Amino acid sequence: MEQDDDLIGKFERYVNPGLGRALRFMGLNAVEHTGRGALIIDEEGQEYIDCAGGYGVFVQGYQNPRIVARAHAQLDQLALSSRVLVNRPMIELAEDLARLTPGDLQYSFFCNSGAEAVEAALKFARIQTGRTRIISTYGAFHGKTMGALSVSGRDAYRLPFAPLMPDVTHVPYGDAAQAAAVMDDQVAAVIVEPIQGEGGVIVPPDDYLPALRRLCDQYGALLIADEVQTGIGRTGKLFAVEHSQVVPDLLCLAKALGGGVMPIGAVVGRPSAWTFFDSAPLIHTSTFGGSPLACAVAQEALRVTVEDDLPARATRLGHTLLTGLRRLQARYPRTLADVRGRGLMIGVEVPGAGVGGALISEMFQRHVLAVYTLNNDKVIRMVPPLVITAEQVGEVLDVWEQSLQAVDAVVDDLLDE
Ligand SMILES: Cc1ncc(COP(=O)(O)O)c(C=O)c1O
Question: Looking at the domain 65-307, which fold is it?
Answer without folding.
Answer: Aspartate Aminotransferase; domain 2 (3.40.640)
